Description:
The structure holds 2 protein chains of 2 kinds.
Chain A: H1 2-40, H2 43-59, H3 63-76, H4 82-100, H5 104-127
Helix pairs in contact in A: 1-2, 2-3, 2-4, 3-4, 4-5
Chain B: H1 2-11, H2 15-29, H3 34-73, E1 77-80, H4 82-92, H5 96-116, E2 121-123, H6 126-142, H7 147-177, E3 183-184, H8 189-202, H9 224-243, H10 245-252, H11 257-297, E4 302-305, H12 315-335, E5 343-344, H13 348-396, E6 401-402, H14 406-425
Parallel strand pairs in B: 1-5, 1-6, 2-4, 3-4
Amino acid sequence: MFFWNNNKKKQEASAIETVEAVDIEQLKEKIESLKIDLTTALGKDRIICLNALGTTYMEMKVTEEAIRYYEMSLEEDTAFGKACTDLMSLYNIKRREAAVAKDDEQLQLYLNKIDNLMQTTKTIMRKV
Amino acid sequence: MGVINFIINNILTQAGITLALIALLGLVLQRKSIGQTIAGTFKTLLGFQVLSAGSAIIVASLIYFGKIFTQGFHMQGIIPSIEAINGQAMNELGLGSPIAFTFLAIFVVNIIIARFTKWKYVFLTGQAILWMATMCTAFGYFAGLRGFMLVAVGGVIGGIFAVAMPAMAQPIVRKITGNNDIALGHFCTIGYLFEAGVAKLVGNPEQSVEKIKLPKAFEFLQDTYLSVMVIMVPLYLITAFFAGEEFCQPIAGNTNYLVHSFLQAIQFVVGVYVLLAGVRLILGEIVPAFRGIAMKIVPDAIPALDCPVLFPFSPNAVIVGFVTTTIGTVIAMFVLPSFGLAMILPGMLTNFFAGGTAGIFGNAVGGKRGAIIGGIAHGFFITLLPALLVTIFNTLGFVNATATDVDTISAALLYAWIIMPLMTLL
C-alpha cells in the first residue's frame, strides 16, 4: 500500500507536468498569434494586443518579455489598466531576484522603475 | 578629546552636515565612485540649506496669517502642513541633527525587524520616514528626552510604526491588489483603517464605486502647488477682509492690504515649493543608498510603497475619497472650535493623497456607500487628531501649523500621553 501511494503520487505529478506542457504550448501558440495581430493592429486594438502579450508572457513566467510589452503599452497609452497594475508585480519579481543575486545594478534599476511607475500613476490620477 | 568635543559640538550639531554624512555613509557602503560620493554628499548638504530657506519663507507667511486670523475671527487658525512642521523643527527649533539621526535610526530598526521577524515590510517612502522622525524628535524633546535617548526612542518607535502600519493595512491591500507583492508605506494608515471600519459597518462591498462613471476631477489637482494655491489665496483674502483694513494696512505698508494678503498666500505656496525641493535633494541621495542596502539584507522583503501605488486599482474611489474627506474636514473645521479646540483649516494635499487612498480602503470594504460615509468620517478624524496637538505645538514654538499624517500624530500622542507621564514618574 505504501508503494501504491507513491506510485499514485508519481502518476499525479506526471499528469500535472503533462497538463503544464500542454498549457505552455497553447500559450506559445497564443503569443505567435498575438505577434501577428500586433503587426497590423492600430490604436486601441494595438494596446489590447500589447497588454495580451504582457499577460500571456506573465502566465508563462517570462518576466522580461512581459515587462517589455507592458512598458510599450503604457508608453503608447498612459492610462490606468492592466499594464499599470501588472508592471508593479513584475518589477517586484525582478527586484527580488536582483536582491537574492546581490546584483546592485539590477536592484537599483528596478527600484527606479518602481519610482517612475508611481510618478506615472500620480500623473494619470491628476488627469482622470 | 578636544577634537572629539569639537566634532560633537560644532559638526554633529549642524543638521546639514549630519545629513550629508549620512548620505556619505550610504554612498560609501554602496561602493559608489569618488566623484559620485562627493557629488551626492554635497547635494544633500545643499538640500538642507534649500529646505531651511523654504522654511523661513513659510514661517514669515504663517506669522502674518496667525495675526490676521486672530484679529478677524478671535481664535487661532491652524494650517495643517507637515512640511511647515518639518521645516520649523529642523531649522527654527534647531532639532535638525537629532531628526537626521532619528531618520537613520528608524531605517535601521525597520531593517532589523524585517530581517529577524515574520513581518518582512521595508518602508521605502523616504519623505514619510522624515515626517515620522520629525514628530518623534519634536515630541521626544517635549517629553524631556535628550541626546542618545532622544534618537534611540524615536528610532524604535518610528521603526515599529514602519513595520506595524504596513502589516495592519496588508489584509485590505491584498484585497485591493489581489496579491501580496506590495505593501502600503504611507503614514496615514490609522486613518485608512478608521475609514475601513466605518465602511464595514455601513457599506456593501458588492456595490463598488468603480462600476459608476464619475465626472472629471478638478483640473487644479494636476499641479500640486496650484492645488495648494487654490485654497490658500481665498483663505488669506477672506481672513484679511474679516481682520479689517485698519488692522492689516499698517502690516502691508504701502501696498493695499488685500494685495499684500494675496502675496502672502503666494509666499506660503512658494515656501512649500522651496522646502519640498530641499527635501527631494536630501532624500534623493539618502533613500536610494539605504534602500538598496535594505533590499539586500532582507531579500524577501515586501516593499511598503507610497500611496499612489494603489491608485491604478481603484481610481474612482480616489476621487470619491478626496471629495468626501474634504467635506469631513470642512465640517470638523467649524465643529471642533465649539469644543474648545483650534480651527484646523483644510489641507488640500492631504485631502487628495490621504483622502483618496482612504477612499480606496472604504470602497474595498464597503463599496460606494462605505467610500462616501467612511470618507466624511475620515475627514473629521484626520482633523480631530491634529487639533489635539495644537497646544503642545504652540508650547514647543511652532507657528500656526500642525501635522497632517495621522500615524505621525499617533506617535506624537504616544509621547505626550504615555512617555511623558512615565518620564515624570521616573
